[in-house]
Specification:
mainly alpha, 60% helix, single chain, 121 residues
Length: 121
Amino acid sequence: MTKEAVAYQLWAAVEDERLKRGWTAVRMAEHLGLPRNTISRLKTSPRPPHVGTVHTIADSLGIDREEAEEMAGLRPPTSARTGAVSVREAIQRDWFYTEEQRRAMLAIVDAFDRDNGGRQD
């Protein structure tokens, strides 16, 4: 069993900004002054990135450093900033899935909900 990426939210913020600007991943890495693989690891690594990396991203994208640290898993989220979304909403928002994949993932979520009596712990 693999661990969840702790800095996924920070990666998503970088990716959202990259897409808004119409940049390639290479161009975004150049803008941030970081290796592209450092940014890619935010999406998958079960370990948080170095605080310096997080601050570089925050400063480059105009994100509050403390908020970026929360998104990177370096500090617990504050209740005002959790921005928690349901699994269903996360699947629906993720641009990476095709429509077919999205439908399959949502069907799995529905099956879990049915099996757990609708509990969303």
